[in-house]
Amino acid sequence: MRRGLLALLGIYTGINLFAALTYYAILPPMILARTVRDTLALASVQSALGAGAVAGGVLMGVWGGPQRRIHGVLAGDLLFAIGRTLPVWLVAAFVGAFFVPVIMASDLAIWQSKVPPSLQGRVFSIRSSVRMSTMPLGYLLGGLLADGWFEPAMMAGGSLTTAFGWLVGLGPGAGMGVMFLFTAVAGTAMSLAGYLVRAVRNVESDGVLVSGGR
Questions:
Q1: What residue segments make up the domains of the chain, in order of their start?
Q2: pLDDT at position 212
Q3: Start-to-end CA span in the chain (Å)
Q4: For residues 202, 207, 213 and 214, what is the CA-based torsion angle, rounded to 10 degrees?
Q5: 3-201: what CATH class?
Q6: CA-wise closest residue to 16 among 176, 133, 112
Q7: C-alpha to C-alpha distance for 84 and 90, rounded to whole angstroms
Q8: Is the pLDDT assigned to residue 204 strictly greater than 90?
Q9: What confidence tens digit (pLDDT) does each residue in 36-55 have?
Q10: Rounded to 5, what percent of the chain is helix, strand, coil?
Q11: How confident is the model at residue 71 (pLDDT cuts 50, 70, 90)?
Q12: What value does the mean pLDDT take over residues 65-87?
């Protein structure tokens, strides 16, 4: 398989780990912890996530995505990390979900254009398996890290309060906010690193994958 596609696969595999670690594993507990178990606030955030995804999908349907799709692939959690009120979380949810269809469609278009139809079944099944392989680990680590380290460390007198208390606050949910901060930085760095890899930047100008690969 070509190096550009392999590197792109590696980037998405890492991003899926970070997404499972925070977005999927601890977003509901964090919202509930910071709102004193306000289920309406959680439902509103989840609705904003859905609305953002629908809006992004409509945009892709009308626009078709960037001409250079790799820019859509390598296009934040930061608002979730520092937000402490429902309006901030609603904006974070909508904006974060809005770009997901753009990124996913751009990535899929690259693979479809580079993999011959006769190989797409095999290649896409391996691609999906590899990309999803890190998500169970993210789910497992999310809860363990939140309960075992980050939440206690962000309570009054905790080991991380001096470093991050000014940014995410203290008390219930603050530790999970720090986790969002870390995954935001790590995920963004991994995405931007793609621009430093020539094979990824030029993946669309590379030839079509053939059965022998190279």
A1: 3-201
A2: 47
A3: 6
A4: -60
A5: mainly alpha
A6: 133
A7: 11
A8: no
A9: 999 999 999 999 999 999 99
A10: 75, 0, 25
A11: low
A12: 64
What tokens were used for 55? 């809006």
Angle between helices 3-19 and 86-114 (to 10 degrees): 160
Contact in structure between 60 and 97 (CB atoms under 8 Å) = no
**Cα 142 to Cα 119: distance, rounded to the nearest angstrom:** 36
Instruction: Locate 156 and state its tokens.
Output: 């009054």
The amino acid occupying position 17 is L
3-class state of residue 76 by DSSP: coil
Taking the C-alpha atoms of residue 163 and residue 34, their distance in angstroms, rounded to an integer, is: 20
Pull the structure tokens for residue 170: 């203290």
**How far is it, in rounded angstroms, from Cα 200 to Cα 203?**
5
Question: How many Å apart are CA 197 and CA 209, to the nearest integer?
Answer: 19
Instruction: Output DSSP code: residue 24.
Output: I
Q: What are 121's two structure tokens?
A: 């079944």
